[in-house]
């Protein structure tokens, strides 16, 4: 069953994040940072559609967050928060290659925003789609995406991912690769939903 996410889900969504082994910068942050600086703001923001897929025991197996009007204001983590800044600096010291990933993400964010902010129609952006690792392959991600496409009919949607597997998943649902950014062996794919023929098998 799919329902709207609420603030009481934040703890379980954060747990889902780690159980799903999300990669990239988000996968390296602590549980506290994810709860306070990422998932709580996503669910509290009225311009973001956030949904969860739950089983009969109310356990969350999947989560999707879609930011509407993505071409009006660029999305960014609260860089002015000292705790988060210290955590990111620690990541760079611990793993210097992380700086290249961060720079690539920032560069891609800027390029995408510069591209879509000039377009007349509103764009929405998938901020994150995660499915619990032990139930991946059961159609939960597809169910969340199909529900999203149905609810936002007529709205253009973009998504950014560092995963080739995820990029292929989105393509099966009608997304088309519109940009690719490469920096220091890190590739970020940008895909856009244009509707039309989909292959969800």
General description of the model:
With 201 residues, this protein is α+β, with helices and mostly antiparallel strands. It has one domain (2-193): 3-Layer(aba) Sandwich (Aminopeptidase). The chain contains 6 helices and 7 strands. Strands 1-2-3-4-5-7-6 form a 7-stranded mixed sheet, sandwiched between helices. A hairpin with a 5-residue loop joins strand 2 (48-54) and strand 3 (60-67). Helix 1 (10-19) crosses helix 2 (31-44).
Q: Helices and strands: which structural class?
A: alpha+beta
Number of domains: 1
Using the CA coordinates, give the radius of gyration: 16 Å
Give the helix proportion (percent range). 25-40%
Number of strands: 7
* Global shape: globular
Low-confidence stretches: none
Q: Give the strand content.
A: 15-25%
**Element string (H = helix, E = strand):** EHHEEHHEHEHEE
Q: Name the average pLDDT.
A: 84
Main-sheet strand order equals 1-2-3-4-5-7-6
Span between termini: 20 Å
Write a concise keyword list for the protein shown above.
201 residues; 6 helices; 38% helix; globular; Aminopeptidase; alpha+beta; seven-stranded mixed β-sheet
Give the SSE layout.
Layout: E1 2-4, H1 10-19, H2 31-44, E2 48-54, E3 60-67, H3 82-94, H4 98-116, E4 123-131, H5 140-151, E5 156-161, H6 164-172, E6 175-183, E7 186-193
Parallel strand pairs: 4-5
Antiparallel strand pairs: 1-2, 2-3, 3-4, 5-7, 6-7
Helix pairs in contact: 1-2
Summarize this entry quickly:
The chain is α+β, with helices and mostly antiparallel strands.
